[in-house]
Amino acid sequence: MLHTVKDSPLSHRSLDRVLLRLRPEDHLVLWQDAVIAATLPAWQARLQPLADAGHLHVMLEDLEARGLETLVGKPLTMTGLVDLVVEQGSPTAW
Q1: What domains lie within the chain, and their CATH numbers?
Q2: DSSP 3-state of 2
Q3: Which InterPro entries match (predicted)?
Q4: Secondary structure of residue 11 in the 3-state scheme
């Protein structure tokens, strides 16, 4: 299953909730303000196992728009997101 989170972990609990419900085969895409999580050392430890499995994706356009670089996860373009949706099915938005 594909999950997407758009809200910053500094102001919402969406990322906390999805991390509790992810199964080993699930993929997670961070986009909009949620990309901030991939740049914060405090979140890196929580996200690293997902990244190590190749299941954490961070929208490159959203990182660039905020002048950020990811510490964890694979940068993902819009084309890559479309490919991921085709592969994984319609995402569950958090």
Answers
A1: 2-93 (3.40.1260.10)
A2: strand
A3: DsrEFH-like (IPR027396), Sulphur_relay_TusB/DsrH (IPR007215)
A4: coil
Which residue type occupies 4?
Answer: T
Q: How many helices (H) and strands (E) does the chain have?
A: 4, 5
- Cα 32 to Cα 75: distance, rounded to the nearest angstrom: 13
Q: Is 45 exposed, middle or buried (0-12, 13-18, 19+ CB in 10 A)?
A: exposed
42-72 per-position pLDDT tens digit: 999 999 999 999 999 999 999 999 999 999 9
Is the separation of the CB atoms in 85 and 58 below 8 Å?
A: no
Write down the pLDDT at residue 74: 95
pLDDT on residue 2 = 97
> Which residue reads 């660039």 in tokens?
64
**Length reported for the chain:** 94
